[in-house]
Design a protein that fits this description.
The protein is α/β, with parallel strands linked by helices and 242 residues long. It has 2 domains: 2-146, Response regulator (Rossmann fold, 3-Layer(aba) Sandwich); 153-239, Response regulator (Rossmann fold, 3-Layer(aba) Sandwich). The protein is built from 11 helices and 8 strands. The strands form 2 sheets. Strands 4-3-5-6-7-8 form a 6-stranded parallel β-sheet, sandwiched between helices. The protein has a two-stranded antiparallel ribbon with strand order 1-2. α3 crosses α4 (83-92), α8 (185-195) crosses α11 (230-239) and α9 crosses α10 (211-225). It is elongated, with a radius of gyration of 19 Å. It starts with a strand and ends with a helix.
Length: 242
């Protein structure tokens, strides 16, 4: 048993072998209510197990050592040690836990520092539950995951402009530029909506296709455009004049 930093005890499944095959997650946030909400979203969802909670970075470092989580949901602003400081400490000691930054503050400064520090994802605190679950699954599979607003900011930064180069996303909006050679019109529509920050479900609703079909198009786009994630795809769309 390990203290969770908030007065409760957490069972160390890493030591007794329980929970095998599940994605082990540690929640780190100085607000108890936020931790409770995240636990409700995640614990038991699609093979995810919340193994502990921490209220600041110092507590988190101790619990990561004790609990060996695969994924850490880490708040940016906390007392004693911030999320960004915690991320830096984890990387300095060579910890392999994948970190998804979670914050109410979506400034470029936080975003860029988290990415440079090796964060596996960056979500806003008002992200819907399914997006939080997907972020954990993607992090465990070593796939980057960003909320729609964060992705839009990344695209803007990549374009080196002070204003977004793509219009705000909306239902039924797709690319007005012609598809590049080797890319079908449907694939290009999907690519353009990814660049606008839409999630797979939103793309499917916008283009009247299933999420499975959206994922199929994304797989083909990754291969054809030689990219490995949504951020790279969004930037490639900009480079191609999308």
């Amino acid at each position: 048993m390990v203290n969770d930093g908030a007065g409760a005890s957490i069972r160390t499944d890493a030591a007794d072998g329980a929970g095998a095959g599940r994605i082990r997650v540690l929640l780190v946030d100085d607000e108890a209510l936020m931790r409770s909400g995240l636990r409700l979203m995640l614990d038991g969802a699609r093979g995810i197990e919340v193994v502990g909670e921490a209220r600041d970075g110092l507590d988190a470092l101790e619990q990561i050592t004790a609990l060996a989580p695969e994924v850490v949901l880490l708040d940016v602003r906390m007392p004693r040690m911030t999320g960004l400081e915690t991320l830096a400490a984890l990387r300095e000691r060579g910890d392999r836990a994948r970190v998804v930054m979670l914050t109410a503050f979506d400034t470029d400064e936080f975003l860029l520092e988290a990415l440079r520090g090796g964060a596996a994802g960056f979500l806003l605190k008002d992200s819907p539950p399914e997006e939080v679950v997907e972020a954990v699954l993607d992090a465990a599979a070593d796939r980057p995951r960003f909320s729609a607003e964060v992705l839009r900011r990344l695209v803007r930064l990549a374009a080196d402009g002070g204003e977004p180069v793509l219009p705000a996303a909306g239902p039924g909006t797709a690319s007005s530029a012609p598809a590049p050679e080797g890319i079908t019109e449907r694939e290009w529509e999907v690519a353009h909506l990814v660049a606008k920050g839409l999630a797979n479900q939103e793309i499917g609703e916008s283009l009247f296709m299933s999420v499975a079909t959206v994922k199929t198009h994304l797989g083909r786009l990754y291969q054809k455009l030689q990219v490995t994630n949504r951020v790279q795809l969004a930037i490639r769309v900009l480079e191609l004049g999308g």
